[in-house]
Amino acid sequence: MNRKNLLLTLVFCAVAAAALAQPHRQTSDHHYRRSLSDVLNQIEERFGVTLKYDIDTVNKPVFYADFRIRPYSVEESLTNVLAPFDYKYVKQGEGVYKLKSYEYPRRTEEDGQKMIAYLNSLYNDKTSLEERKECLYKEVREKLGIDEPLEHITGNKPILSKIRKYDGYTVQNIALETLPGLYVCGSIYTPTSKGKHALIMCPNGHFGDGRYRKDQQERMGTLARMGAVCVSYDLFGWGESQLQVGATGHRSAIAHIIQAMNGILLLDYIMTRKDIDPTRIGANGGSGGGSQVVLLTALDNRYTAAAPVVSLASHFDGGCPCESGMPVTMACGGTNNAELMAMFAPRPLLVVSDGKDWTSSVPDLEFPYLQRIYGFYDAKDKVTNVHLPDEGHDFGPSKRNAVYDFFISVFNLDRSKLDESKVTIEPESALLSFGDRAEDLPANAIRKFDDTTIYFGTKVTSHMKSDAAIERKAQGWVASLELNDVKKEGYVLTLIYNHLCAVRDWHNNHSYTLVPEGVNPHNGEPLSQLDREMIIDSTMPAEVHNKLMNGMRRVLTEEQVEAILDKYTVGKVAFTLKAYKEIVPDMTPEEEAFVVENLKIASEKAIDYKNMNQISAVFKMYKNRIERYFNDNGRNWRDMYRDYNEKMKAEKKKKEQQ
Ligand code: ZN
User: pLDDT value at position 466?
Assistant: First the structure.
């Protein structure tokens, strides 16, 4: 190639490169940006799936949006689109996906495998394991923060009920004052046989009806009949504890600490009884109760046997604040429930798992890991796994039988007494220490969540105070319905509480400045701060509203639903209707029906707004519609309103003259 040709070639290449570069530069400026909600709508349409979500999609641009879609896979497309926002999907059924925020206590089974492999690399014999154990036991305490409240415990003797006698066992209720004014309540099931008994601590989990439910009573009574004292006690903020601190208490990280403290203090008390054999102390619980078994055995070396049921996994710590509220799994550079339970070696351990929840991985993942650890002590036979592949997340008969077999074997209980039909199922009221409505609580008792917070750092409790205030408001509204049905009350209370919190959080997390300054296209006026607040708050996902309304309509009458809406909007429907009737004294039934219908719609719309100015603004929109209706139907709103005002003025004058 001669010089000239080379030059031409270079120029040509440069031009070609520039031509190619130009669109490239444009794309990197443009980023193929689209809004998240737009992209999600497109995914629904394209793949014919339903996406359910109340995740925040406001002001969330997806860069290179279309390039993230994989035409052959809705799941890969969702992963690509959601990952930048720390969102994920959970498949709920064929073609139905729930979009959720990142969940720190819940990982994937693959994560569990990697974590177990990593943990296995940390120890290869008893000595190295014992070193790790020492670190874990020390740091779990620290991360949980349990030593601070333990400095404030009362040391008081428990309040014990009369003993109720049944076939081969007795039941006695216990209320133990832990921190001043704070009680943990439970029931003690004791064998009627003489001599020293094994003891099994049975913290409650999250199954409906708590420790009062039939299968829990069957398990307690049966173990007692066979020779073990069983202590069955409430979660914090559940059962009788809910009557002290509300359900808010359970949603706080404090629950994690208090439940562990309750387990330690109840064990302290029961060990003072002369009929307890200190060489046979067990822990058993299902689901959230199983999470407590893991923690209690890590905090307290008095336990000699343990049986967590449908709970233990390496990739799920339990999603409730009472299980994951405090960063216990951050101990010693990172741990998980499987490792904490492994530290129980070489003492007897039963792990019950099933095929339909997160414990489905136990036979292939967690159990072999536990066996390896127990092997360091030549005690592989001391750890067992009963896996029920066709069963789900409950404490059903086969799980209870596994627990019976285990404790019969390790505590030498009397198998001949194994007969659940001999257990008397007591009504919930019989198992309470302080009555259905906590009417018998001692005078010094704490009666709201805020009062427990003084024993804990403000970091743990600050935002809970606002939650507690919302809960009290919701409680007042529900009480006004006089439902006389504790379950229904609890259900409606949770619906309203969740809705009020969601409205508050949406409002607080979305400043009106997210809406640019600009003009209102209807009147040309600049948008006010209220306008911009209304716009941004109106972007709250409809699911929040629908959950409340559908839930209420399922269990309440339409009048009761309206009564709750009236609480939200401080009686505006009735108040405004009254005013209309005064302004339009000869209002026809047809007109009144239109007014009422629109005010009711306004009321239901207004509940999704946080403050009174916003609620009034929603009503204003519907009042405008009503007034237009009068004008369109042969009346003159302005004249009627003027006449009404003049009449008012005249009446006022008349009064002044009298
Ligand atoms: Zn919980």
Answer: 78
Spacing of C-alpha 214 from chain mean position: 24
Q: How far is CA 476 from CA 316, 434, 466, 493, in A?
A: 36, 21, 16, 9
Other Cβ atoms closer than 10 A to 627: 17
The more confidently predicted of residues 449 and 400 is: 400
State the chain's maximal CA–CA distance in angstroms: 116
Quote the pLDDT of residue 471: 87
DSSP-based three-state secondary structure for 7? helix
Condensed to tens digits (0 to 9), the pLDDT of residues 132-172 reads 999 999 999 999 999 989 999 999 999 999 999 999 999 99
Do the Cβ atoms of 31 and 63 come closer than 8 Å?
yes
* Cα 237 to middle of ligand 1, angstroms: 9
| Residue 495 Cα to ligand 1 middle (Å) | 18
Gap from CA of 427 to ligand 1 centroid (Å): 24
Residue 45 has pLDDT above 70, yes or no: yes
Pairing of strands 169-177, 197-203: unpaired
CA of 288 to the centre of ligand 1 (A): 6
Centre of ligand 1 from the C-alpha of residue 287, in Å: 10
- pLDDT tens sequence across 501-526: 999 999 988 999 999 999 988 889 99
How many angstroms separate the alpha carbon of residue 252 from the centre of ligand 1? Answer: 9
Expressed in angstroms and rounded, the spacing between residue 489 Cα and the centre of ligand 1 is 20
Ligand 1 centroid, distance to 327 Cα (angstroms): 15
Peptide bond into 346 cis (omega under 30): yes
Task: Tell me the CA–centroid distance for residue 267 and ligand 1, in Å.
Answer: 20
CA angle 164, 169, 173 (to 5 degrees): 40
AA identity, residue 605: K
- Euclidean distance between CA atoms 422 and 407, whole angstroms: 19
Name the strand (E) or helix (H) holding 589: helix 589-606
Sign of CA dihedral 441, 445, 449, 455: negative
Distance 216 CA to ligand 1 centre (A): 17
> Which three-class secondary structure state does DSSP give residue 481?
coil
353's CB contacts (< 8 A; 6+ apart) are: 310, 312, 359, 360, 362, 363, 366, 367, 385, 386, 387, 388
Is residue 17's pLDDT more than 80?
Answer: no
Q: In whole angstroms, give the CA distance from residue 652 to residue 649.
A: 5
Residue 175, phi-psi category: left (phi > 0), alpha (psi -120 to 50), beta (remainder)? beta
Residue 12, pLDDT > 70, answer no
Q: Which residue has the higher pLDDT, 22 or 294?
A: 294
Residue % of the chain over a pLDDT of 70: 94
The Å distance, Cα 429 to ligand 1 centre, comes to 23
Between the CA of 285 and the centroid of ligand 1 the distance, in Å, is 13
pLDDT of residue 457: 66
Q: Please give the distance, rounded to the nearest whole angstrom, from the Cα atom of residue 93 to the centre of ligand 1.
A: 26
Query: Is the per-residue pLDDT at 87 higher than 80?
Result: yes
Q: How far is the CA of 291 from the centre of ligand 1 (A)?
A: 9
- Cα 75 to averaged position of ligand 1 atoms, centre (Å): 31
Name the token pair of 563. Answer: 């009564």
